[in-house]
Amino acid sequence: MSEITRPLTPQACTLVIFGGSGDLARRKLVPAVYNLLLDGVLPDNYAVLATGRKPLSDADFRETAREGIAKYSRQAIKDSVWSHFEQRLFYVSGAIDDPKAYTDIRARLERIEAALKLPANRIFYLAIPPTSIAAAVEGLQKAGLVQPPTDPTQFSRVIVEKPIGNDLASAREINTTVARVFDESQIFRIDHYLGKETVQNLLVLRFANSIFEPIWNHKYIDHVQITVSEAEGVGTRATYYEEAGALRDMVQNHILQLLCLVAMEPPYSLDPDVVRNARMEVLRCLRPIAGKDVEKYTVRAQYSVGKVHGVDVPGYRREAGIKPDSTTETYVALKLFVENWRWSGVPFYLRTGKALTKRASEVAVHFKEIPQILFNADPEVPLASNVLTLKIQPDEGLSFRIISKVPGSKAKTHPVEMNFRYGEAFGAPSPEAYERLLLDVTAGDASLFMRRDAVEASWAWITKILDGWKAYGTKWLPEYAAGTMGPVEADRLIQSDGRNWHPL
Ligand code: BG6
Atom 2 (ligand 1): residue with closest C-alpha? Predict the structure, then answer.
């Protein structure tokens, strides 16, 4: 096995989690640190200091952490490891808008660092609503908790969770606020899709194999489909989702980043900024969808009553906390173009939605049809084309559709799938996205994080669509029954080009 050399190594530090008594900390962040410890990749010395409004003691927090790990961790609790780990978990309560909270955090940090002989390297994870970001970064600064990036003896880094804004203007405002306190080199904007193993494998697949790069362009590729399908409905996140909708929640970040990885030019090194520049170039090349084109190239829809996996699902407007006349889209499909030489004329079809038939995310690269000769001579029954499908989740792997001869004396052909499954090939389940991302922050490696210019470029593109939707009203908000694969309008979007959605 050859190892991808990481340019940077993880360093001893304390992870300070704002929103420390919340869901993200319990389900994802603390289990991620625990798994890194089990895998032996955490720096030798570390601590986690959670902070939140809830008045919890260290012991209370440790108990919640243990429950969270038992329920959500990739690997089970090992008592011998846990007894060491829990000694490194701390909690301090305080409100984000209260200056005293920050002096308390500072005092607590200094005590922990002295006791554990930790350097004053601090990572501040802002798992809080965007409206609280300004108060948090200013509080940190006033309490003297932010060191300049040039300080060689200690580092201060900040991790910013999504949503970063709800349009270009608000994203800029958040970025400006954070930039008043932290240097861009200290800011890590999370898009957890970039931490998924299968998403990282996109780069390896494209640039560690010789056969793909020569055919990865408009000469050989007919079109690309990116699907992120979710079976879950809105769940308990009504307040957030009502304001967001599928375009902001999934396309602005996760799906556009997938697109960047599929469409980017080969970076000349794995240096974080070289990779991020290559991804950024794709965003710069997106043909804007604005004005009347919004109706032509986008479909938005909302789920109505139906069944998912045999379970009744109420229509979106009937879900708890949702306005009965809500026009928030829970599904979106788009057709877009990357305007550069490589992708000239190749449509990219994107779709995502909640309460669909099943949970499945994939990128399907459809190659061009072969000429109408030999095995494809009958125009009534054209041969299926080759499709390379990168399965992001849940059955991680990739499959390649090829045409094969059916055994027998007749010259009959049939499409067959060549399959590779991570689980089968490598045995162990892949690490969670947050594990990889947290580890990268301890090493100061920002390759898998969103740079300010990329966040703003993707919002700029998305905001044009949002403006178009506003201008053309919500009169064309179609519905789809929960448990189906979306509205007929989305089928028409792709069928009018003589193509079909790739079955999941
Ligand atoms: C989040 C969205 O960013 O990603 C959720 O806010 C969505 O609405 C989730 O369900 C999907 O993530 P994953 O890793 O389960 O595909």
Answer: 249
